[in-house]
Design brief:
With about 210 residues, the protein is an alpha/beta fold. It is built from seven helices and seven strands. The protein has a seven-stranded mixed β-sheet, with helices on both faces. It is found in: Cytoplasm.
Length: about 210
């Protein structure tokens, strides 16, 4: 049975104002999907579970006091737009697909979200430091760490949504990086894992060494 907005609110405890913002976001996603392939078409049958809850599950895992984050390879804006709706004050959404960025801009406007949308590849983004780096279905873990490191402060955390290959990815990442790793079962995918990484450091000298 598809997850309803009311069931989502009951599960996450979001306010009515936050739910209203997410409803506007979801309505726009469905509308734009008719013209632009923003997400996999079959996921719209359960959009509140597959995209809204899948993104929202990261919010309670963010470091306490998180004020800023980067969403790498954000696609149609998930999880970044949802986390902005839930209260993260400074969200940077990085996506090279211009049409998906156009959707994100309109979604941020309609839902009243504070999001900076970077229509470019993450490798070309100027270096900055944020409290958290998030990503969903963008790249394998070793590549994600390469993308993320220029934006990490010593206290930054990474939250990555991963699937069945998580063990292989962690093994590969361990060849080039040291990190503190925490795992949380996905609330939307029985085979999924949310990785929370902290104290991330390259094992060899890195061009973006802090």
């Amino acid at each position: 049975m598809p997850l309803t907005p009311e069931a989502f609110a009951a599960e996450t405890g979001v306010s009515r104002e936050t739910l209203a913002r997410l409803e506007r976001l979801t309505e726009l996603l469905v509308k734009w999907q008719r013209a632009i392939n923003l997400v996999a078409a079959n996921t719209l049958q359960d959009v509140w579970r597959r995209h809204i809850l899948d993104s929202a599950q990261l919010y309670p895992l963010l470091p306490p006091g998180t004020r800023s984050l980067i969403d790498i390879g954000s696609g149609a804006g998930f999880p970044g737009l949802v986390l902005a709706a839930m209260g993260v004050g400074e969200v940077h959404s990085v996506e090279s697909d211009q049409r998906k960025c156009a959707f994100q801009r309109e979604a941020a406007r309609v839902a009243g979200l504070s999001v900076t949308i970077h229509a470019q590849r993450v490798e070309t983004l100027p270096k900055m430091q944020v409290d958290a780096i998030v990503s969903r279905a963008c790249a394998d873990l070793p590549q994600l760490l390469e993308y993320s490191f220029p934006f990490m402060a010593l206290s930054s955390h990474c939250l990555f949504l991963k699937g069945q290959q998580v063990e292989r990815e962690l093994t590969e990442a361990g060849k080039g990086w040291k990190m503190q790793t925490e795992r949380f079962p996905s609330r939307t995918d029985p085979t999924g894992t949310v990785l929370r990484l902290s104290h991330v450091e390259p094992l060899r000298p890195h061009r973006d060494e802090r």
